[in-house]
Fold this sequence. Notes:
Blueprint: E1 10-14, H1 29-39, E2 43-48, E3 82-86, H2 98-112, E4 117-120, H3 126-135, E5 138-142, H4 148-156, H5 162-189, E6 193-196, H6 199-207, E7 216-218, H7 235-240, E8 248-253, H8 259-275, E9 279-284, H9 290-299, E10 306-310, H10 317-321, E11 326-329, H11 339-346, E12 350-354, E13 370-372, H12 377-389, H13 391-408, H14 411-429
Parallel strand pairs: 1-2, 1-4, 2-3, 4-5, 5-6, 6-7, 8-9, 8-11, 9-10, 11-12, 12-13
Amino acid sequence: MKKTTPESLNICIVMQKYEFHSLQNRTTNIWAVADKLSQSGHSITLIGWQLDSHQEKPQLDLDSKGNSSTSRYGGFFPGEGVKVISLGHENRKNIKNFARLCSKNILSLHKQNPFDIVHSMDTFLPEIAKYRKKLGLSFSLGVEVTTMSTMFSKLAFSENNLTDMFKITLLFPYWFFKGYFTHDRKILKNADGIFTTTPRQSTTLDRYYLYPQLKTYEIPLSTSLHITDETQQASDVLSGLNLSSNEQIIMTKTKMLDYREMNYVLEAFQKIAYRKPKAHLIVLGHGPQFKKIEKIMIDLALVGRVHFVGHIYSKDIPKYISASKVFINIGAQTSGFGFSLLEAMSQKKSVIGSELSPVASLIKNEHDGYLIRPADTESLAHKVIQLLEDPELRTQLGEQAHHKITHAFDLDKMAEKTLLAFRHILKHTA
Length: 430
């Protein structure tokens, strides 16, 4: 006999790192959706790794093994029914242990107040997946848990020439099957549902991963959506970099996981810098490939024209973006929408994205932004120069981008679709 799905659900949402832009305004997408669900009478628990260090450290009720020991499992309470657990505050804990620590806390909490569904946005939890039926809960995942974004990245950074096309043709099947049989197959087999953010991801799951469409839920639930109508002051950003308000600022954000992403941007900017003496490139972010990227910048003789800012807290990204005229995001390390690109669009900035990344389903080329192939540095340089020389074009694209972003991410619809997806999963796995 099937278990009846309760009217009020107890939901656990997992991600290694939540970005807390404002605990007062709670404009972060995942916060806002959690708030909406809690306001509808559902109990929501958010489990992440750690808060940005500028936030107050929450007091958690954890036992000596790091498990939640009481029903009041602490953290911030952004809305009635929303609870937060941050696992990474104690130095003795390593992020490599996130999945294990997370599973322990879920099991501990489940004994006190059973969850109906656990949804992990970017981390596979093998213990929860294996024993989910015995525990009496459903287990869903975000598409970020698979290697799909890695496949997109390899395609995006391939050169547009016969040699690279031939290489990709030969190697891509190997990359795909290696990722599928060593990682993705086990994950998909143990997932009661997969959440995607774009039609491309849903189609890829169906055609190549052979994952049932019935268990795929397309919801643009980005992890860091932050739309603001406030006018950001850029003077402190520019003065901090010894730049004047007359400079033409181009901005990009990168995780520096693949040096080729910044290599293409820097090669394009070299062409831009030659034509536009007042143009400067500000690079947000830091990562393992920084030294290699810095050397490329020096070799291209761009010292003084390219400014590496390093890691920026999420709450400060809007301030930096406000100083720019053009925002570039050609990365493909994520298979969802990046917060920085959405923020740039919400601030009416001219944006340039990759035609091979998920943002291609968001940006309409030459209507609310530009789409290029990352390796096509000539086109990238041409588009940026065109935007710097034509303020009216920048305004037109910026207005269209702002209109799209404020209408595409309707919070009520996102919360409604998320709840319907959870109920559908529970109905078919109860």
